[in-house]
Each structure stands twice: as structure tokens, then as C-alpha cells.
Amino acid sequence: MNYHLLIDNLTNPALLFFILGIIAVLVKSDLEIPTNSSKFISLYLLFAIGFKGGQELSHETFNTEIAASMLFGIGISMAIPIYTFFLLKKQLNPYNAAAIAAAYGSVSAVTFVTAVSFLEIQHLQLQGHMVAIMALMESPAIIVGLLLLTLSKEVDSKELAIKKRTVLKHAFTNGSVLLILGSLCIGFMANAEQAEGIKPFTDDLFKGFLAIFLLDMGISSGKKLKAFFSFGWFPLVFAIVIPLINGCLVAVLSAAVTSDVSNRFIFAILAASASYIAVPAAMKISVPKANPGLYLPMALAVTFPINITIGMPIYFLIVESTF
To answer: DSSP labels for 213-281?
Structure first.
């Protein structure tokens, strides 16, 4: 096995800032990123990725590979909640099972952003249509999770009926989805000269903002770990093992729709990631009986660091070895 890739990833400044955030919590430091600043940085990262993706998309020609890739991405986000829901129901109530299944079927925009940075280190470039696919994969998992919960025998479907329309609307108008799709469209419409005018903002500042944001993510993760461990061994094992299985499996299966190394790697990381922004917001509206103290730390405090430390090098090695 090539350990050079793993070592490079573990010494990435962005990842080290994430670890610094966790250490800050463990030593009870008063270090924190102001809420407004954190929100601005997250919006900036989504904007920059969307705009650059739109620029790349403007140079691409829509073809059968792109169409197949879009269907493949949507298929992943629908398939993962189905099998994970029935697996989770063996240990958890259907409300928590549906929320966790939706989170792991949906995607993490921040993990996606970190994966783009990983590709740049490997001197590979993200293709624009993958940004659109990432945005398309946000909502189907939420819808499937709600459908599975409605069909569950242990749940009274009447208590969910009133909120279905609200949560479906939220799934498609969620701020992160709207921003990245909007930025993608704007980047697609802007010509090269216009895009050059904001390049220092979209390109040069990106890695610095990513490092600060991951510092904030580290602090948030560290604060949630203690409470999470009180739920026992099953959620912890699930949050480690299932994403790695999903990522490795999709790293292989993605060869059926594209031969591009960067595209296949992004598919793997999207399949392995778990939403801790869009899905928790949707579940709070539609499934208040689901415990956010369970599914939120699983996605943010366990799966996210697993993916950005050992997950990404593993998925990349699989993609390269099956090229």
C-alpha cells in the first residue's frame, strides 16, 4: 500500500487545523470562531466551489456520460437510505433510524469542499458537472427517509402528513443547495474576463478560509463527542464502518459511468459523507422525535473526521487501482 498519500493527507494544514479545534475543546480552551464569521465562511466556500464549477461546466459539452453520472449520483442518494434504514432499525427506533439514514444518504458540502482541496494536491481538477451532481444529491435522501418512516408500521403516518409539504419544500430550497446551484449558474453564465475579476476572491483565499472553517468544525465536533458516547457502541461503529463501505463500493462502481479519476473520487466521497446541515434542519421540522444529539454527532464528530483522515486516501487509491 502507498502510505505516502495517507501521510500527505494527515499533514495537510486544513486537517491539522481541524485537529487543533478538537484539542482546544479537550484542554478547555476559550478558543472559538464567532457564529457570524463561521456562517460567512461556510457561505463563501459554497459560493467559491459553485462559481468555479460553473466556469468549468461552461467549457463542457453535455453528453451521455454526464447524464449517466447525474442519474448515478441520484441513485446513490436514494439507495443508501433504504439499506441503512433497515440496518439501523435493528438497534434504534424508526424516528432515529430515518433521520440517520437520510443523513448518510445525503451529502456533506464541507466534505465535498475538502475533497476538492485534496484533488488539487494531487494536481487534479474538479469537473464542473460534479458540483451540480453534489447539489442534486442533497434532497433525494431526505425524501426517501421520510417515505420509509411513513411506511414503517411503528409510526402513525398522520403525525407526519401535515409536515411533508413543508419539509419537501425545505429540501429543495435549503440555503446551501440554493447557494451552490445559484453560484453554479452564475459561474456558467459569466465569461472568462468577468470571472477573472473575482478570481483572487474565489481562488486565492479558498484554502485559508477552508483551514479556519475546519478549525471551527473541530471545535464543534469536540463539544459533541462526550454526549455522543453515551449512546453506546452501535452508533459509533455505524458512523465509522458504513461510510467507508459506501465510499469503497462507489469508488469501484463509479467506473461504470465514468473513467475520470477525479469524478470517481468525488462520487466515492459523496457516497461516504453524511449531511450535518441540510438533513438536521429538515428532520427538525418533520421528525421532531428523532434525537439530534445522536445523528448530528455521528455525521459531524465521527464520519467527517474519518473521511478526511483515512477515507479520502483509501478511496483515491481504489479509484487509481481500478482505473
So the answer is: HHHHHHHHHHHHHHHHGGG-HHHHHHHHHHHHHHHHHHHHHGGGT---HHHHHHHHHHHH---SSHHHH
C-alpha cell at 10: 494527515
**Phi and psi at residue 207, in whole multiples of 5°?**
-65, -35
CB 215 within 8 A of CB 17: yes
Of 317, 257, 305, 289, residue with least CA distance to 68 = 257
Given a cut of 80, whether residue 12 has pLDDT beyond it is: no
Q: What is the DSSP letter of 106?
A: S
Per-residue pLDDT for 256 more than 60? yes
Rounded CA-CA distance 5/263 in Å is 18
Q: What is the pLDDT of residues 201-236, one digit of tens each?
A: 887 888 888 888 888 888 887 887 777 888 889 999
Task: Report d(CA 122, CA 159) in Å as an integer.
Answer: 49
Compute the mean pLDDT over every residue in the chain, rounded to the nearest whole number: 85
Could you tell me which residues come within 8 angstroms of residue 189 by beta carbon, excluding any fewer than 6 positions away? Answer: 54, 58
Length of the chain: 323
Q: Is the pLDDT of residue 317 over 90?
A: yes
Residue 25 and residue 219 in contact, taking contact as beta carbons nearer than 8 Å: yes
Cβ atoms 50, 131 nearer than 8 A: yes
Q: Count the alpha carbons within 13 Å of 183 in the hemisphere toward its beta carbon.
A: 22
Comparing CA positions, the residue from 196, 224, 201 lying closest to residue 303 is 224
C-alpha cell at 295: 445523528
DSSP class of residue 107 equals -
| Angle of CA points 108, 109, 112, to nearest 5° | 90
- CB-count exposure of residue 296 (10 Å: 0-12, 13-18, 19+): buried
Q: What is the pTM of this model?
A: 0.81
- Pair 269, 107: CB distance under 8 Å: no
